[in-house]
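Narrative summary of target 7.
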Amino acid sequence: MFGLNRDQGESVALLSIGTFLEYFDLMIYIHMAVLLNELFFPKTDAHTASLLTAFAFCSTYLLRPIGALIFGYIGDHIGRKVTVVITTTMMSFSCLIMANLPTYAQIGITAAWVVTICRIIQGMSSMGEISGAQLYLSETLQPPARYSAVAFLAFAVSLGTSAALGLASFVTSFGLNWRLAFWVGATIAVIGAVARTKLRETPDFADAKRRIKEVFNEKNFENKKLREDFIEREKVNQKTSLALFLMDCMWPLCFYFAYVYCGGLLKTTFNLTPEQIIHQNFIVSVVQILSLLLFVFLSYKVYPLVILKVKLIVSFLIMITCPYWLDQIADPFYLLLLQSAIIFFAADAAPATSIFYKYFPVFKRFTYISFTYALSRALTYVITSFGLVYLTEKFGNWGILIVMVPVCIGYMLGLRHFEKLDQINNRPPAQNLEPLVA
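Modeled conformation, tokenized:
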């Protein structure tokens, strides 16, 4: 696969399987929310129900920045491997709790608080998971195989999402106990945690640790504090951090619109049942899988920044016409086509993720990229989920543009920044070469 040797192939496989399992667990609740929110939260009027749905959704992402700082510190000071093992273990415990959690009818508001805490833990653990896995492969492989392998992790995320939707659809369609989905999730999370103990530390991190140790040994410095100060003096380009943040905001917007916002329309406008909504979202997830798989293979032949530019143009054109189409759609099938178009061309960091990560110093890389990733998700999901409740009430579907247009502009500015870094470092896209650290 992508010209990798046996050890590299095993690393890609282990990390991809683990990422698949992690996001399978994370997305089970999100895609069964139309059913589970009625079990764990009190029944209210339509407006309050919309806010509760937004709260339940955002609870997964609100404390992700804190999780990013915690796991970023572990990843930058102890190692990448230990981080992905810890996060997978956390996910398995939260799934076990939710699989056995009594409903609101049984224990009242306690059920709502416990499920929210479990969602927060899952969000924090998934944060360390995806950043750790992407960083591991970015520091292990060489381009162009690196681009495709790291992008393949995004495919694994999508596959986990689709599998969660498939299981949710199966459970609800056949009237099975919803707890079965969480038991399956907990089981596979344990398997993933055990499998990842076989990983080795990344060459970049291990080599950087070794070189610092050699330097201090040569100078006869034994003080641990001095070594930590030496690492802390590494500089991070703040414009580069901002550019990555702006680009990271795009995917959560596309995800929320395609799955959550349109899912709400299917319920309120077309009166679909939760089972029918889950089934339609499952079809959208299959489109997402096909899209990511296409871009994974394209990135082996086409420079990733070129791919992102094309995705941005198409995605922007679809987004600015969304309100018009939403006002015209009178059948769930046509809404499915719009959902699929948004998710197929959704502009995100993949497959250029590994290019961006190399512009951060090795001992601050995990912390910065994971915090940027987490903060973008938290802010975008909060603004989008709560904001659209009020914007669409006041402006109808055209209120969507108040969120969509600024995010698209931010993505464009972020992409231009990385293109300039590419040019400064004398790495023209046609050469498919590795950019230097800014």
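The CA atoms of residues 297 and 425 lie 26 Å apart.
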